[in-house]
Amino acid sequence: MESLLASRSIRSSFSAVASTRGAASPRPSRVATLASAGAGARSRALRAGHTDDMLNAKELVQWENGLSFNDIAARQGIRIRRHCRPTASLKEIEEELGAPLNILEKIIWDKEIEVAEGHAKKPLEEVIQAATKAPPSRDFYGALEAAYKRNGVPALIAEVKKASPSRGVLRENFNPVEIAQAYEKNGAACLSILTDEKYFQGSFDNLEKVRSSGVKCPLLCKEFVIDKWQIYNARSKGADAILLIAAVLPDLDIRKFLQICEELGMTALIEVHDEREMERVLKINGVKLIGINNRSLETFVVDTSNTKMLLEKHGDIIREKGILVISLSWVYIDPLK
């Protein structure tokens, strides 16, 4: 079983390491009070200081239209290029940009086409309406905090995943509802549902099925988010949290998507893998949940010491900001042992 390990206890257990560097005692965690969806929610969130100041007009136009996207991304150390041509075929894109540099870039190029098709099938306005009419979201952040306080051990986010590019099909007889129910029964604090179809054989239908099955755990939509349409669609299918990957998204995107999550009452899990990404994300106001991925999404190589290394360097500011940290990849149990 591959899973996500999460808890305030990761902060707490690291405090012994941090204290050798003269760090102050960890501050009590702040459970996020998420604004409910509705008129004026975005402006209230901004006034309350949950997100950065409003973007200037030029930046907002660039963000909305994808203008100079790769220039913006490159300045922030993002190596994943975007083609910003959602109506183009993958062949046309490769003729212009060459072959994808790595598996993550290939996934994102395909995702741009997929999201454009989603817009065509279900316009943004329709998806927004569905999201605002969805039942209230569940407190993903709070569930992790509560599990740690209740059990005294790291909370577990168990993953409902049929396949991956690195390991192929993980389970042929795949029933997402049965798997989710088994995870919940055995103590998972939250669940992560893969929704990418092409590379992970997931779907938003799986997310919706798990949500409507009676499972009480908060649900993370694990998707390669590049467009606000995906966030609204995830909320309409029952997601309580969404994954935002710093290796893919420039700061402007992360800020904008945090605003949308705030409006919808969702939790944003910001994934980082290296020093540069961590530094970027820690400068963005409103971040409450950071996932440190031990796997490089460019090479899929796993280094289980990555979480410890980044916490050693940034633990003080993480505690100061009251951010909850999740260690992503790798918890694996050999079924033959």
From TrEMBL:
Keywords: Amino-acid biosynthesis, Aromatic amino acid biosynthesis, Decarboxylase, Lyase, Tryptophan biosynthesis. Pathway: Amino-acid biosynthesis; L-tryptophan biosynthesis; L-tryptophan from chorismate: step 4/5. Residues 104-327 form the Indole-3-glycerol phosphate synthase domain. GO terms for molecular function: indole-3-glycerol-phosphate synthase activity. Its EC number is 4.1.1.48. Pfam families: IGPS. It catalyses: 1-(2-carboxyphenylamino)-1-deoxy-D-ribulose 5-phosphate + H(+) = (1S,2R)-1-C-(indol-3-yl)glycerol 3-phosphate + CO2 + H2O. GO terms for biological process: L-tryptophan biosynthetic process. This is indole-3-glycerol-phosphate synthase. It comes from Zea mays (Maize). The lineage of its organism: Eukaryota, Viridiplantae, Streptophyta, Embryophyta, Tracheophyta.
